[in-house]
Amino acid sequence: MSPRTLHSIAGGQSAAPRGQMSRSSAFVPSGGRGRSAQAMRRVQALPVIEISRDEAMEFWAGVMRRRCGNPETCAVMFGVTVQTARNWFTAFSRPHIDVVLQAMRWWPDDFSGADLGQGR
């Protein structure tokens, strides 16, 4: 058996230079990296709704009274206990987000913004 000899195919000195790997400055938008001015103009921001905890609970109680009529019907519609529905009707507590989203799907006009502190 003959001994093996390791040979370097390309040494560090003989390798060709690779050039710049990162983006050149020609690709950077004005103002630095990030969104261009045209892209910023396309972004839409939702208005901020300023409403207190008490106002939110009163709003929800009003929607439930108008749309459900009584706590028993509300409990069946949203799959909650009657006591939970009573708490909503008396503005004692607020629902979880999944309940609010379901109500928004059923009654979008009630969540248009006019009653939520917008447009005042």
TrEMBL record:
Start and end residues of each stretch annotated as Disordered: 1-39
Organism, scientific name: Gemmobacter aquaticus
Identification of the protein by name: Uncharacterized protein
